[in-house]
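// run 5 | inverse folding | seed 20
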């Protein structure tokens, strides 16, 4: 059964047996791969809630959990910007993938054909890999860009409040513009962990007139693809991932990923995006102020 947004209502309940399998596997990894897991859980266990919050917001709006993870790690753990970025991307790989599966079950994904979907995915992932490997971000880049990008995304979300959209697929003439947005969004995601999902959603709604739920769902899938690619690059090539923190963020992100689409449907797109836009702009202003203060 389809909703007025042109997508299917979620079938079944939030819980799925595979979530239980995942949590058992996570517990095994925690106990076997880390020394003194009990003490580690006492120190970092609350990060599960941070992962849950970030992934819920990220999958309900397509912006990505980085909007929560990056500032949380920098402000609560005093991590440098690049370490926070690496952590956010690894956690997003799990959280956004969980959310992408939930959106796929709703049928809220796709631009009309497999070829179109593949073309845009190649552009977004290609931009992400180029941003990570050819234009590797410095701490100053991450901290300097996160604020303006966050503010810009918040303002775009406010613009999206009034634009409802009616199309289920974008016009063919818009595909080049969408591909450019995916490429630019991918580079931004490599630098600040957010960008491609909300940039694509904004373009699809504001330019192509796509139904909001379909635009957000497609943005979530693209951010999941970029996050997985970037997580593999940082984990296997560049290194520097703080796994003792990631291991507690990841289960919350997986649970929040499935919760995001449900929250979006229950709250309604307008109220959810209004609240998110305010948070994004506030976060951005905080980081801009910190960058200016540090340079003064």
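// decoded
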């Amino acid at each position: 059964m389809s909703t007025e947004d042109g997508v299917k209502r979620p079938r079944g309940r939030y819980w799925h047996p595979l979530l239980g399998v995942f949590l058992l596997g996570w517990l095994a990894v925690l106990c076997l791969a880390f020394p003194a897991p009990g003490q580690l859980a006492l120190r970092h266990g609350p990060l599960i809630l941070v992962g849950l919050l970030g992934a819920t917001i990220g999958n309900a709006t397509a912006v990505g959990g980085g909007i929560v993870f990056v500032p949380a790690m920098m402000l609560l753990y005093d991590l440098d910007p690049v370490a926070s970025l690496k952590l956010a991307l690894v956690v997003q790989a799990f959280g956004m993938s969980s959310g992408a599966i939930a959106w796929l079950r709703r049928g809220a994904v796709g631009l009309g054909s497999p070829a179109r979907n593949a073309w845009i995915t190649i552009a977004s992932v290609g931009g992400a890999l180029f941003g990570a490997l050819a234009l590797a971000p410095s701490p100053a880049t991450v901290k300097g860009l996160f604020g303006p990008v966050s503010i810009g995304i918040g303002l775009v979300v406010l613009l999206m409040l009034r634009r409802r959209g009616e199309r289920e697929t974008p016009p063919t003439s818009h595909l080049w513009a969408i591909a450019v947005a995916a490429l630019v969004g991918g580079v931004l995601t490599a630098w600040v962990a957010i960008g491609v999902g909300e940039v694509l959603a904004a373009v699809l709604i504001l330019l192509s007139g796509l139904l909001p739920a379909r635009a957000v769902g497609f943005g979530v899938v693209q951010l999941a693809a970029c996050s997985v690619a970037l997580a593999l690059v940082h984990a296997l090539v560049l290194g520097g991932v703080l796994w003792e923190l990631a291991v507690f963020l990841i289960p919350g992100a997986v649970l929040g990923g499935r919760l995001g689409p449900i929250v979006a449907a229950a709250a309604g797109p307008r109220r959810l995006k209004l609240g998110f836009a305010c948070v994004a702009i506030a976060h951005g202003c905080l980081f801009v102020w910190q960058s200016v203060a540090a340079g003064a």
